[in-house]
Amino acid sequence: GDWSAPALWRLLFRVLSPLSTDASSASLALETQACWVKSALCSQGYPRLALAQLPEDGSRGSRELLLALSWLLARGPLPEKLLAQAHVQVGDEMPVCECEALASPGPGAPHVQAEDPVDIRCVQWLMGRLRFRWRCLAASQQEQCTLLSKLLWRLQHENTGLEAALEWRRGELVFWRWMDTVLTACPLEAPAAAAQPTFLPRIPEYGVGKLEPIAQELRALQEELCEAAEHRRVAWEAKVGRQVQGPRWSAARQALQTAVGQELAALQWAWERDRGPAEPHGPHRLVRCEEDAPRGQHVRAAEVIQALRSQEACLEAALCRLQGQCRQELAKLVGSLPGLIWIPPSGH
Amino acid sequence: MSIVTVQLGQCGNQIGFEVFDTLFSDSHSSQGLCSKRENEAYRASCKERFFSEEENGVPIARAVLVDMEPKVINQTLSKAARSGRWKYGQHAYFCQKQGSGNNWAYGYSVHGPKHKESILDLIQKEVEKCDSLSGFFIIMSMAGGTGSGIGAFVTQNLQDQYSNSLKMNQIIWPYRTGEVIVQNYNSILTLSHLYRSSDALLVHENDAVHKICAKLMKIRQISFSDMNQVLAHQLGSVFQPTYSAEGSPHYRRNPLGLALVSSPSCFLSTFLLWSMSIETIFLFFFTGDLMENLVPHPEFKMLSVRNIPQMSENSLAYSTFTWAGLLKHLRQMLISHAKMEEGIDWQVRPPLSGLPPLGKMPFNKELHFNTSIANLVILRGKDVQSADLDGFKDPALYTSWLKPVDAFNVWKTQRAFSKYEKSATLVSNSQFLVKPLDMIVGKAWNMFASKAYIHQYTKFGIEEEDFLDSFTLLEQVVASYCNL
């Protein structure tokens, strides 16, 4: 009966919402939700026109909606997607390759000289500090408890979802059998509609028309660029041809060769690194695992550290190069301005 | 890390309102003179400490209001609601129809036990709203009946019930020429009881605040509201977020004193925090916060606040400041007992370190030079990294049994406070309060010796024995502070 149509509209709305439906969007009017569902299904290529013709007041169409839902279920791992959406973020993740050094020096050891007699008040003072730290530790334990219980509550919530997914898996076969009977009982849609398997979102005509002149313009610009570059190249070659002799030239050439060599080495390094299986990237959780765990999506901390080290070496080389450039630049400046002198920085 | 504020009595409620209003306006001011991102972090940190969020988005002060008369509470609640920017919790107050009539004993022994359950329930509800409770900030007067009597009672109960949470009492020292005859009795009872149950007593003297209003703010007819605003400004400059010691990239989470060293064992908690509230919780904890730095010794719990600059808005528009100038004045205020920028005695110098106090030293050295146990300087504003604090690291400023490295701390932030481009605040555990305390104890003792008004206290269960205990404890405190 069609009494179930509104519920099915809502269900489809929730399934199709990109984000886990929060309170505000769940409270939308049924008409809005139905309209949204229609366009979402349409944009995903749902083939049955009968759905698009359903009234949006939710009064009819439970069979069509059921078919749409089955279509979504049959198309991809929908329960898994929903579970992933609702997955509790424990937060124990670190972005790999973006680790910042946590340089926090621990508390300095109080240096009490053993020879001097210690004032009892100093001991009391230190005791007091210890007591404060202890209390704060206790408070933070409490905080952890509070947060843990919140986390547990959310995990419990997720568990309910997982249980529901399991339940679905058990009953799935029955569902599909039922759907087969529904489909058989369904009148076939007009062949014209069937021949048009998907209807993608319409691209306005004028948009296509506009693209052509832009492409032409781009091509023209590219030609112009090539031409200009060629001109410059010819001019440069002529100029270099005149200066090609002399020690300055050979020094410059050597510097260029070194730079190119470095660049090449860096490229090679990057290429070698990229050649292997795709490097895992993005957020990773830090866990302890067995020595001989199979290689999967994970990345070993040691490897990350290794990568960071080589990155560091590269950066250091770049720093050295830049410092050299700065020095040269400064020397040049000083040479051209005889009135300049060096003094130590203020405050020293 | 959040702080639950308990406002007690007329004084506590009026000051509490000003404090929340100051914190809120400052954190929402656009004059912070810092990046948008930094400003947001500052605001979030302030909010987490002092406000909780309600559904409609208006922040609610993490506060419990207590008074025995409804008048001031009603005024305070409606003033906050009228502001439209923040408010008090709908049910976060407790009041009765009849006050304590300036009788400390009545507040402590009658009102306190009678309403204990209701008041502690309210506080517990507020505590439950905090993911993580740093401690309590208890605002009360020292010499009254309701605020100070019940305040002492409540603090004691908080100590029993939340022994691990930090407790700081903001107490208002009465005018020297107060109009309440028993104010000295009330004061010694409050002080001695708080000394047993609180971790720190942050003292503001009415006389000093009054002078600041007259001399610096140039206010002609000074109202309590004016004074409370000055006071709230000082407290705000202490409690607003800052960075820890040197160049730390995160705002300290706990202004009262969380001190957890980052270690692998707190990895989990760190990550848990991360997931719960990404924007508002900062990941790293700091060692050495206010309480741990200033009041770890059980005999030295009295803190004073000095700040610079402080002036009327009109004058502020025509003033510029340098860190060197501000800190030079602040240091001299510290060593010469000055309560404000004006009238500093520039003759006072630290005693030459290493020399024994022989006859060469002026006889009344200790009357002039203010020896510190520990100091905390908080700097807020432009170019704060360039401020040179070496003047505060002189061993001669401190008691012989602490090294400046243990006794002196500094917090900084680029984010300007209130309307001041640069401002410095000093929280000092020093001899600032020895003289006023000695005077109050002396006056109370004289009255006690002639048994004046004692029956008003014994009538409600505060016996002569209790008075004697209070005298003993406070005289010990005076002696300890004198012999630094």
TrEMBL record, chain A:
Under the heading InterPro entries, the entry gives: TEDC1, TEDC1_dom
| UniProt keyword annotation of Signal present | yes
Superkingdom field: Eukaryota
Biological process terms in GO annotation: positive regulation of smoothened signaling pathway
According to its UniProt entry, this protein's organism is Otolemur garnettii (Small-eared galago)
The segment(s) forming the Tubulin epsilon and delta complex protein domain are 45-151
Instruction: Note the PANTHER family from the entry.
Output: TUBULIN EPSILON AND DELTA COMPLEX PROTEIN 1 (PTHR35076)
Asked whether the UniProt record includes Transmembrane among its keywords, one would answer: no
Q: What is this protein called?
A: Tubulin epsilon and delta complex protein 1 domain-containing protein
Automatic annotation (TrEMBL), chain B:
Q: Boundaries of each Tubulin/FtsZ GTPase domain copy?
A: 47-247
The organism's superkingdom is given as: Eukaryota
Q: Does the keyword Glycoprotein apply?
A: no
Q: What is this protein called?
A: Tubulin delta chain
Query: Record's PANTHER family?
Result: TUBULIN
- Name the UniProt key words of this record, in alphabetical order: Cell projection, Cilium biogenesis/degradation, Cytoplasm, Cytoskeleton, GTP-binding, Microtubule, Nucleotide-binding, Nucleus
Q: Name a GO molecular-function annotation.
A: GTP binding
Q: Which GO terms describe its cellular component?
A: centriole; cilium; cytosol; microtubule; nucleoplasm
The record, for InterPro entries, names: Delta_tubulin, Tub_FtsZ_C, Tubulin, Tubulin/FtsZ_GTPase_sf, Tubulin_CS, Tubulin_FtsZ_GTPase
Q: From which source organism is this entry?
A: Otolemur garnettii (Small-eared galago)
Spell out the family assignment given in the record's similarity comment: Belongs to the tubulin family.
Where does the record say this protein resides? Cell projection, Cilium; Cytoplasm, Cytoskeleton, Microtubule organizing center, Centrosome, Centriole; Nucleus
User: What function is annotated for this protein?
Assistant: Acts as a positive regulator of hedgehog signaling and regulates ciliary function.
BP term (GO), one? positive regulation of smoothened signaling pathway
